[in-house]
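Q: What structure does this chain adopt?
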Amino acid sequence: MHFRPIFFSLGILLTILAVVMLPSVLLEFFDNKNWKSFASVQALTAFCGALTALANYEKKFTFRIREAFLMTNLIWIVVGLFGALPFYFSDTDISFTDALFEAISGVTTTGATVLTGLDDMSRGLLLWRSMLQWLGGIGIIVMALSVLPLLNVGGMQLFKTEAMDVEKVLPSAAQIAASIGTIYVMLTAICAACYALGGMTRFDAINHAMTTIATGGFSTHDQSMGYFDSARLDYTATFFILLSSLPFMLYLRAIRGNLLAIFRDSQVQWFLSIVGLAILSLMFYLTLTFNAPLGSAFRYASFNAVSVITGTGYATTDYSAWGGFAKGLFFFLMCIGGCAGSTTCGIKIFRFQILYAVSHVQITTLVKPHASIRPYYNNQPVSQDVQMSVMSFFFLFALSFTITALLLQMTGLNFLDSMSCAVTAISNVGPALGETFGPAGTFTDMTQAGKWVMSIAMMFGRLELFTLLVMLSPHFWRH
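A:
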């Protein structure tokens, strides 16, 4: 194992993280808040980053697949640890466990929070929460399109082909990443402008734009998007969340001339169809069960269904009070997620497509034993390796969910709370179901042990399970 390139990369990352802290430090300074503590954390982060990078610098680095796995895991863990320090040393008076929970929830774009009194919290700290999610969002895209396909994680090797197609136009990975980053920044800026035009203050607009495009869900208010009580803002958020849930590689293709690439992609078609069915079923359920006006039913159904299925976690109302059907539907929507190569969470649509294709082939083979049939994805045959990888991912997802739920029950949670907290952590959604940890509550009252379980589960979910689990194998550490 070659550790020098790993620590050099981590040092560079920490240095960048320190630079990103600057706007929050300046806000704390101008507002005359706890800026000295924040500045000290920034200085510590910069010092550790620069020292680590300089101590491990080499003219030529050797990266193998083991180094790639380890570096991917350490990046998220280190950012979570250093990202927690501004919360811990702030005047919010929270424990390190709570600070780490908040930071990991931010960088994994989960959106679960232990903080209350957001309306009165310092602007610097609120901006830092949003920045963590925004950085996590772009990091997820780069990881999903650049790293995971090379590691053959959870069927992500399917997207090697997409990357190769783009490389015909943009020959280097750095150019592809820069182009996607530009699209990410532009979407954030446009979203912020739309929020401002919709009635948000500039500060609220910038923060909510960052957490919307990252599909993270942190808000600057305890009531989340419900604070604004604006249909226009709800529809704006729904639109941009949907945009962020589609593969960013397709946006790059569209800009390069293939305008219909987004609509021709079968993953996008499946995703929009599932979202549409969820919205329609919820809308008619609210209309028939609660006699809600059709317009209001559509507004609340579309916003909350899109927020949950994409793992954004915004809430405009306490949908846990909508009855058993809504709870059950939201529970399953939490697992689904958006498209691969986006900022969303969950199992991802393409894996359901592979599962359906493999199941269809299996059923057909039972009827026609001598037929030679292969599963297809986006009109391309799916290799046996991808099929095995996807099936393994479904098994590990179910196993991780079960273990997390049982551990949370051991901390004292009831059945509904433990099940919904487990799925919201593994799928990086944010709010759970129920009164305590649902969209109207926070995770403040969860035990310290429960918060550690949730933090680990959030990290597992964001790293697509395999990436962390592979390091538990003794073979990984053998030369």
